[in-house]
Design goal:
Blueprint lengths: L1 E2 L5 E2 L2 E10 L2 E9 L10 E9 L4 E7 L7 E10 L6 H4 E9 L3 E6 H7 L22 E2 L17 E4 L5 E11 L8 E11 L5 E7 L1
């Protein structure tokens, strides 16, 4: 439930929920189905909340998305950027999610919390002359070959190698031969997109 600006209690369906804990905090991410109907999909929006264990206080209720596409299946991943000098500077929490049934995007939650939130929990404008915020999603390169079958990639997973580089793995359908041939061999293959420490997409490939 949520109390709106008029003081009324509003109940939302929450189809997706995930959380991560670090440095005395618990950070929650969840999808809100704003009309509570399974017949619509584009009204699913992503929210973030922070709980402080020492103060026993829930801070903020940050609306990450406000658009006309589905924002679902959030996943946190906490990783270290080797380009930064200290452990505190280097370790960042990222929030990945599945956007518009087509691919995975992410934001840097650590950067958002440090620089991008007003005292009332609203998003700060970056001040770069535009209207961008630290909650603007960054593309990962996970884009299925056929957007009409894009929900295949909803089983994505984020992993990290020993050098601190992030990889997103997902499965997709591969047809050996003519897709119109009902006798063509069909298989599920594993694909990957690599993100180096700075978050820039550098490679995209598949593995059988």
């Amino acid at each position: 439930t949520h109390t709106d600006g008029n003081g009324d209690t509003v109940a939302y369906a929450i189809p997706d929920f995930t959380a991560i804990g670090y440095n005395g905090l618990a950070v929650y991410a969840y999808t809100v189905d704003t009309d509570g109907s399974n017949d619509t999909y584009e009204d699913k929006e992503l929210y973030l909340q922070v709980y402080n264990f020492e103060q026993h206080e829930t801070k903020y209720r940050i609306r990450i998305t406000d658009d006309n596409v589905a924002d679902t299946l959030p996943q946190f991943f906490r990783s270290r950027d080797a380009q930064l000098s200290t452990e505190e500077e280097a370790t960042h929490t990222k929030l990945f999610w599945y956007r518009d049934n087509k691919g995975v995007v992410y934001i840097d939650v650590t950067q958002l919390m440090q620089q991008g939130i007003n005292p009332d929990g609203t998003l700060k404008i970056k001040g770069d002359g535009g209207d961008s915020t630290y909650a603007d999603p960054i593309e990962t390169g996970l884009r299925p070959k056929d957007s009409n079958e894009s929900r295949q990639s909803a089983d994505y997973r984020v992993v990290e190698d020993a050098n601190g580089s992030l990889f997103i793995l997902w499965t997709d359908t591969v047809v050996d031969g003519d897709p119109a041939d009902e006798n063509a061999a069909v298989s599920q293959e594993i694909f990957a997109t690599s993100l180096i420490s700075s978050g820039r997409v550098v490679t995209d490939g598949g593995a059988g």
